[in-house]
Specification:
Helices cover 44% and strands 18% of the residues. By secondary structure, it is of the alpha/beta class. It folds into three domains: 268 residues, NAD(P)-binding Rossmann-like Domain (Rossmann fold, 3-Layer(aba) Sandwich), CATH 3.40.50.720; 110 residues, SCP2 sterol-binding domain (Nonspecific Lipid-transfer Protein, Chain A); 109 residues, SCP2 sterol-binding domain (Nonspecific Lipid-transfer Protein, Chain A, 2-Layer Sandwich), CATH 3.30.1050. The longest helix has 31 residues.
């Protein structure tokens, strides 16, 4: 959305504006020539999150605005009052308050200590009320001076559906407190000519904090913060004329402004977006996905739990372990099973057993299967109460990497590496050992790679996942090419000449593998 200059000379007091949505709203206003007060805590660089109030101030000045960076903890009345006093002294008043600062912990009642409960409620609800209250005398003066004062809270509609409470009651109470400020203050200040509204995103918004929680893969399922800043700008330039006491959604606001191309706000246009909390459309999206699949049940589309864990097994490798670094426990119902997925040690492992974990996920078997096939978004499942999560939420969000690996693994020719190895193992016998006489080490690359040993030298032969101390031949190739090679879709000699297959060791024994492959494919592997 293009800037039209209507906020030139206005002063905005924006909380939590050192990064993310708050900073984007501040920059949008600055392009009109507005004065911006950054009220945030980050004065020193965060070890993982970029940006401070001072680096944000530099960007605001470069964008065309004036800026007063203030170190403010919105829980402190003294700090908020001090920042407001500085702003009035610097810019002559305050016209707009954007309550963006917020704290989040998506944890159940037993997992939320009172310290965390208090933090969320003090920042979200109390901080919003406090900043609005301290700025209010200046907003009244702004109206008296002929301007359009506004309080805009970045908070959701007050949706009383229990699914938005039961997994994270404390967070919902704190966030809804911000929205209740909108409900009450809008009516209270209507006669004063001060608009009070809420703005909330339809989808997850990509920020540095989101990357830290969910990893780089989460970005493609998010929209850019600019969709929120454009929507905020559209609301603020109309002042009280845009209405008051409204709970607005970003893309709905922009549709009314004539914007129809929302790919411009997507990080990865075309990908499914994660719906944000507190919106009925999140439930609707799930129902629509069922309709698009022809009304098939999760069991039909997801496959059995065992087959899903087979695909996950295919995906295990040291790279995945390095990227994830967590142990997951899946407590399944229908069937009643417990599985441990270790993505923290070695090359990863998966076992049907109980044990300690960094994250525990409780879910029905059919929903679990659909999640790992890609038919059910894990975030939607969590928000709808289908998936219960206990433990490290950051690691929980990293599970998306595993789901991607399992989904790509499931499309591999003839059922994936694990299925292929199982069929190869059935064909191994003492006659094949006498004919070949070699130990083959396979190093499979890709999301569902790993190391496997086919021993056609000792006893009746054997196959195992792992490494051999003294292989006669080591073969390195993509997992997909391995499956194609052992199902006859890819000639091993061609694969070698094309650079798809790397061979180290006894070349004579390497060539004998072609005989093994032929005998296996002729047996209709």
């Amino acid at each position: 959305m293009l800037n039209v200059g209507k906020l030139a000379g206005y002063t905005l007091f924006v909380t939590g504006a050192s990064r993310g949505i708050g900073k984007e709203i501040a920059l949008k206003a600055a392009r009109d020539g507005a004065n911006v007060v950054i009220a945030a805590k980050t004065a020193e660089p965060h070890p993982k999150l970029p940006g401070t109030i001072y680096t944000a101030a530099e960007e605001i000045v470069k964008a065309g605005g004036k800026c007063l960076p203030c170190v403010v903890d919105v829980r402190s009345e003294e700090a908020v009052q001090g920042a407001v006093d500085q702003a009035v002294k610097e810019f002559g008043g305050i016209d707009i308050v954007v309550n963006n600062a917020s704290a989040i912990s998506l944890t159940g009642t037993l997992q939320t200590p009172m310290k965390v409960y208090d933090l969320m409620n003090q920042i979200n609800t109390r901080g919003t009320y406090l900043c609005s209250r301290v700025c209010l005398p200046h907003l009244i003066k702004s109206k008296q001076a002929g301007r359009d004062p506004h309080i805009l809270n970045i908070s959701p509609p007050l949706n009383m559906n229990p699914i938005w409470f039961k997994g994270h009651t404390a967070y919902t109470i704190a966030k809804y407190g911000m929205s209740m400020c909108v409900l009450g203050m809008a009516d209270e200040l209507r006669d004063e000519g001060i608009a009070v509204n809420a703005l909330w995103p339809r989808t997850a918004i990509h920020t540095a904090a989101m990357d830290m929680i969910g990893g780089d893969d989460i970005a493609g399922q998010c929209r850019k913060p600019s969709i929120m800043s454009d929507a905020a700008y559209a609301i603020l330039i109309k002042g009280a004329n845009s209405g008051t006491g409204q709970f607005l959604i970003d893309d709905d606001v922009l549709k009314k402004e004539g914007i129809t191309n929302f790919d411009q706000y997507a990080i990865d246009p075309g990908r499914n977006l994660i719906p944000d909390f507190f919106l009925d459309s999140a439930e609707e999206a799930y129902e629509n996905s069922l309709k698009e699949r022809g009304g098939k049940s999760n069991t039909e589309t997801g496959g059995s739990v065992q087959s899903v864990f087979d695909r996950i097994s295919d995906s295990l490798n040291s790279d995945l372990v390095n990227n994830v670094g967590g142990v997951y426990k899946f407590v399944l119902s229908e069937p009643d099973e417990i599985w441990i997925l270790d993505l923290k040690n070695g090359e990863g492992s998966i076992n049907q057993c109980d044990g300690d974990a960094d994250v525990t996920m409780t879910v029905k078997g059919q929903d679990f299967s659909s999640m790992f096939k890609g038919d059910l978004n894990a975030t939607q499942a969590f928000m709808q109460g289908k998936l219960k999560i206990e433990g490290n939420m950051g690691l929980a969000m990293k599970l998306e990497k595993v789901m991607k690996a399992a989904q790509s693994g499931s499309s591999t020719s003839r059922g994936g590496v694990s299925n292929t190895m199982q069929k190869v193992e059935k064909m191994i016998n003492s006659n094949l050992v006498k004919e070949v006489g070699a130990v083959y080490q396979f190093v499979l690359k890709g999301n569902y790679g790993g190391k496997w040993v086919i021993d056609l030298k000792n006893g009746d032969g054997s196959l195992k996942k792992g490494s051999s101390d003294e292989p006669d031949v080591t073969m390195e190739l993509a997992s997909e090419d391995f499956v194609k090679m052992f199902t006859g879709e890819l000639n091993s000699t061609q694969a070698f000449m094309q650079g798809k297959l790397k061979i180290n060791g006894n070349m004579g024994l390497a060539m004998k593998l072609e005989k093994v492959i032929k005998s296996l494919t002729s047996a209709k592997l």
